[in-house]
């Protein structure tokens, strides 16, 4: 699918089941490399980044197969994983999460060759924190013509303080620590729900981890991890995307299996703006019938603060709310790519610098042809199209397919007139 066509301006009505979480499942899939045996991952979303990770695991020697909607991975016996094989360039470059294979492979085979992961339009996204922390665990790195060669004579537990709570660095450290000799203490760890999910998976496999979900995580290394059956939680950003679609276009929707407890800061903002958000046994029930009120300021922060991944979606919502709002993006240095498209649709947005935009809500948006440049920004343009009068066409939809199983199917279930070609 390359383009999405939306005939917008109609209030939403319907219910949709929220897919499994992309950012939770990717480190879990990397973690299967540390197990000897088969893991079965249920509620695994079928999307580009998961297919990339599946390709990478296969290139390393794992056997993978989809069975009844679950992804089965056999990481085989010790000695059968080839960490020095050349990983497919498209998968490594196409997906930044390829970097978490580093911690897992060091834990499994003690040596890795990996190309630098792909850059990304939302910011520079360096890996200096990953490398500095792994060095403390007895890993050495050499720059090679192909990228990075990493090896260890044996991972050792260490006390590590992360200068900022990087999600990827915390995941890499956890993956390296679970089979290291001795105890690893990670201070300043990221507290995102995806970290807790990874710890839950590893603990089920036999790892010894305490403090998951807090900023200090203690890992005592173990010798063996076993393959297990595991269910991926719902995707908080996908649920937030459809919440925003309802906030922008109005209406009533039920987001079945939305991970409500992981969405508190987003729900607080939505409720403050005037949306009704109720927890029901089936999921999140959202009603939006009146014009929403803009908060004066919205600041992105590490979890449990307002997530950067929801920022561009709220930029769309705020374009149609009453009043003005200043958004401050504190996590990534270049995450306002939808501003020119929203302006073309009639939004009033002033970008004061790379990290701040001021939005003054307008009565309505008009459909235009727009191009997605990255995942969440692309979804935010689709949400804008669902709210706008007339037809919107969003090109570059391969970005959206990295994180959404089928955004057209899901929004159709919520009553949006939308199709992809
Ligand atoms: C994860 O990226 C998510 N990706 C991102 O979601 C999410 O936006 C981000 O966490 C923040 O919540 C996945 O889980 C696959 P970080 P990650 O390391 O791990 C800087 C989406 O749309 N930094 O917490 O890469 C970095 O540049 C994606 O699904 C360093 O300086 O995020 C950034 O400014 C987009 N050096 C900040 O830290 C490092 O070594 C946070 O990055 C590592 C990070």
Descriptive account of the structure:
The chain is of the alpha+beta class and 421 residues long. It contains 13 helices and 23 strands. A four-stranded mixed beta sheet has the order 21-22-1-23. Strands 2-14-16-15 form a four-stranded mixed beta sheet. A four-stranded mixed beta sheet has the order 4-5-3-13, covered by helices on one side. A hairpin with a 2-residue loop joins strand 4 and strand 5. Helix 5 runs parallel beside helix 6 and helix 6 runs parallel beside helix 7. The protein is globular and about 65 Å long. The structure holds ligand EPZ. Ligand EPZ binds next to helix 1, helix 5, helix 6 and helix 12.
Briefly, what is this?
The chain is an alpha+beta fold and 421 residues long. Helix content is 30%, strand content 26%.
Count of β-strands: 23
Poorly predicted ranges (pLDDT <50, ≥5 residues)? none
- Report how far apart the termini are: 5 Å
With strands numbered from the N-terminus, the spatial order across the biggest sheet is 21-22-1-23
Largest sheet geometry: 4 strands, mixed
Mean pLDDT: 94
Give the fraction of residues assigned to helices: 25-40%
Number of helices: 13
The hetero molecules present are:
ligand EPZ
Strand percentage, roughly? 25-35%
The Cα radius of gyration reads 21 Å
The structural class is: alpha+beta
Large-scale geometry: globular
Topology (SSEs and partners):
Blueprint: E1 3-8, E2 12-17, H1 22-31, E3 38-42, H2 48-59, E4 63-67, E5 70-74, H3 89-94, H4 101-109, E6 111-114, H5 128-135, E7 139-144, E8 147-152, E9 159-161, H6 167-177, E10 183-187, H7 193-205, E11 208-210, E12 216-220, E13 229-231, H8 236-249, E14 251-256, H9 264-273, E15 276-280, E16 283-288, E17 297-299, H10 311-319, E18 324-328, H11 339-344, E19 348-353, E20 356-360, E21 369-371, H12 375-387, E22 390-395, H13 407-413, E23 417-420
Parallel strand pairs: 2-14, 3-13, 9-10, 17-18, 21-22
Antiparallel strand pairs: 1-22, 1-23, 3-5, 4-5, 6-8, 7-8, 10-12, 11-12, 14-16, 15-16, 18-20, 19-20
Helix pairs in contact: 1-2, 1-7, 4-6, 5-6, 6-7, 8-10, 8-12, 10-12
The structure holds ligand EPZ.
């Amino acid at each position: 699918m390359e383009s999405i066509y939306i005939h917008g301006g109609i209030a939403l009505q319907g219910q949709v089941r929220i897919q499994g979480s992309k950012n939770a499942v990717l480190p879990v899939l990397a973690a299967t490399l540390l197990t000897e045996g088969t893991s079965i991952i249920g509620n695994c979303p079928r999307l580009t980044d998961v297919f990339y990770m599946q390709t990478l695991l296969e290139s390393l020697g794992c056997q993978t197969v989809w069975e009844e909607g679950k992804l089965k991975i056999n990481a085989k016996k010790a000695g059968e994983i080839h960490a020095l094989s050349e990983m497919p360039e498209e998968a490594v470059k196409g997906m930044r999460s390829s970097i978490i294979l580093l911690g897992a492979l060091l834990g499994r085979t003690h040596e890795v060759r990996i190309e630098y992961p792909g850059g990304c339009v939302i910011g520079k996204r360096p890996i200096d924190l990953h490398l500095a922390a792994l060095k403390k665990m007895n890993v050495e790195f050499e720059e090679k013509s192909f990228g990075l060669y990493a090896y260890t004579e044996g991972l050792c537990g260490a006390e590590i303080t992360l200068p900022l709570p990087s999600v990827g660095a915390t995941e890499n450290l956890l993956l390296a620590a679970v089979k290291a000799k001795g105890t690893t203490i990670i201070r300043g760890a990221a507290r995102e729900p995806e970290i807790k999910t990874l710890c839950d998976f590893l603990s089920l496999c036999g790892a010894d981890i305490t403090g998951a979900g807090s900023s200090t995580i203690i890992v005592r290394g173990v010798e063996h991890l076993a393959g297990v059956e595991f269910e991926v939680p719902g995707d908080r950003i996908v649920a937030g995307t459809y919440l925003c679609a309802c906030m922008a276009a109005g209406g009533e929707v039920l987001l079945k299996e939305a991970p409500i407890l992981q969405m508190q800061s987003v729900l607080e903002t939505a409720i403050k703006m005037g949306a009704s958000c109720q927890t029901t046994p089936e999921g999140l029930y959202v009603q939006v019938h009146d014009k929403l009120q803009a908060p004066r300021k919205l600041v992105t922060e590490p979890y449990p603060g307002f997530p950067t991944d929801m920022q561009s979606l709220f930029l769309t919502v705020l374009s149609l709310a009453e009043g003005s709002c200043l958004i401050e993006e504190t996590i990534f240095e270049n995450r306002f790519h939808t501003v020119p498209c929203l302006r073309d649709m009639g939004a009033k947005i002033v970008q004061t610098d790379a990290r701040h935009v001021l939005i003054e809500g307008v009565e309505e948006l008009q459909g235009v042809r727009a191009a997605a440049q990255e995942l969440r920004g692309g979804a935010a343009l689709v949400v804008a199209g669902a709210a706008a009068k007339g037809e919107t066409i969003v090109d570059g939809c391969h970005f959206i397919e990295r994180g959404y199983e089928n955004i057209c199917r899901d929004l159709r279930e919520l009553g949006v007139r939308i199709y992809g070609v």
